Amino acid sequence: MKSKVISVSILSIALILVSLIFVSSFGLSKPNPKPNPERITFSGDLYGDQEVEGCCGNAGPFPEYTMTLSDNFPEEFQGTHIGNIFLNSFGRKMPWAYKVQFWWGGENNEYFIEIRGGEVHKDKRTKILTVTFTQEDTCWTWDPSGDEIIIFIEFTLIKDPQRR
Questions:
Q1: CA 68 to CA 60: how far, in whole Å?
Q2: Which of 5, 83, 108, 110 to pair with 22, CA 20 to 30 A apart?
Q3: Is 21 exposed, middle or buried (0-12, 13-18, 19+ CB in 10 A)?
Q4: What is the pLDDT of residues 56-103, one digit of tens each?
């Protein structure tokens, strides 16, 4: 009987120690590193050049970005704005290859642009993505009143992961 009590005690202590080691390993593990920054550059009818972090998963985050819109946009859209950006590529199943969204102006006074299209080129060695948008691609704009206007613009987008 005494040997059973000792065996059960040793087994219980061993299980407790293993459990503590297992639980503490989660608490001591390194946190996930910050996402690598990317330099996002626009040239043409959209202009911006900024380093951002965490751009641009489908569910966000949607990083802050400073963008200048050319005279080809409606008058209330022209100029430099601080807003949020979303960029994403789409597979070959879509009729367009890339989407750019930019919005600014706060909750009740939001301006929004969305451009779909582009010709995508990704350099396999440097991982730099270049998307060229021509006037055949579609740009929608929405102002705070809800009016939608389609315009035709040209610009180039470069996403540089800066991991050299």
A1: 22
A2: 5
A3: exposed
A4: 766 567 888 999 999 999 998 999 999 999 988 776 655 567 888 999
Cis peptide bond upstream of 55, omega within 30: no
Q: Alpha helices, DSSP H only, in 2-97? A: 2-28
The phi, psi pair for 30, rounded to 5°, reads: -70, 140
Q: What whole-number distance in Å separates Cα of residue 75 and Cα of residue 117?
A: 24
In Å, how far from its chain's centre is CA 4?
A: 61
Q: What is the β-pairing status of strands 129-133 and 155-160?
A: antiparallel
Q: Are the beta carbons of 31 and 63 closer than 8 angstroms? A: no
Instruction: Please give the model's pTM, rounded to 2 decimal places.
Output: 0.72
For the chain, domain boundaries: 1-31, 38-160
Token pair for 89: 């590529």
Phi-psi region of 44 (alpha: psi -120 to 50; beta: other; left: phi over 0): left
